[in-house]
């Protein structure tokens, strides 16, 4: 193993704990590099990369941070510096894994550094914040969050075991080797929801039979963000974006938005993409009592006790068509847009709860009107989105783009 486990944290307040996990990791035969992101106070042991270097990497000299005595500024600088240091070490081939520990400040610094690393690099964060909403810390990276149970304040009978578990976990991940497997296949990203599963499953079967590997992302906001991040990271050869429903949540304030940059990564990077309008008939909310009052007169469907779906209106569908057209028109690579004229989800077909031909027509008309036919291949089919014929047509189109 050429790389080392990087320990990132504030040694001025958590030095004893970092020394403890450093010794445990090295006891397994794995080497370490300690990065000190603290500002005040002398660390109890000398780090490999001192805080003055971290501050400089964050854009502000350490003595200036000390003189200004501004905690918010210090956090910003050290967070940026730690991420830059980790990136530098990774680019040199020196990172086999990373571990950090802390409260809210330490978790912010540690996970920012981890998010600077690619997916696949082992990342362990022991945190007092791990039992709550971890989305701000994890983002779309494979960060393992371990709840510290007690505050990280010295070594006691309970924290000793928890910190040891974390140390052995990252050492094991860093030192482990994958068994020899099949030759890597070209990766294709696909998006799926429960109401588009038959379509994605059929397309996946077809493309995998042609020698590709599909990574399917659940279109839950973070799923779309993760896909776009991996596309930006150069992992994918093409995108089968069947389920663009996250844009409905972004437009109407649902809980599964992927943000305003969804549908940009493939086009920006020139990747072949085949796109459809899967599940644009719905906006996602939590239990009924969480739905905004302004929507009280809308059509709802109780998907399960914790998920309530709201049918998009014709006006919302029209706006969605305009947004998606603009995103696809900006693409730098080949792109096809498939329209399933008989329904965009399992519950948007004749006789189903969200069947609304007027709303679907508004979506389709907006796309027809706004798509730049010189850049986007528009294909309309007299099927619903989950018909095998529709799924196979999309898969074959993407295959034709990839083979070119």
Task: Describe, in short, the structure shown.
InterPro entries: Tobamovirus_resist_UPF0261, UPF0261, UPF0261_C, UPF0261_N. The protein has 404 residues and is an alpha/beta fold. It has 14 helices and 14 strands.
Write a structural description.
- This protein has 404 residues and is an alpha/beta fold.
- The protein folds into two domains: 4-175, Uncharacterised protein family UPF0261, NN domain (Rossmann fold, 3-Layer(aba) Sandwich), CATH 3.40.50.12020; 187-403, Uncharacterised protein family UPF0261, NC domain (Rossmann fold).
- Helices cover 42% and strands 18% of the residues.
- It contains 14 helices and 14 strands.
- The strands form three sheets. Strands 7-6-8-9-13-14 form a six-stranded parallel sheet, sandwiched between helices. Strands 2-1-3-4-5 form a five-stranded parallel sheet, sandwiched between helices.
- Helix 13 links the parallel strand 13 (335-340) and strand 14 (376-381).
- Helix 2 (51-57) packs across helix 4 and helix 8 (197-209) packs across helix 14 (388-403).
- The radius of gyration is 24 Å and the shape is elongated.
- The model has no long low-confidence stretch (mean pLDDT 95).
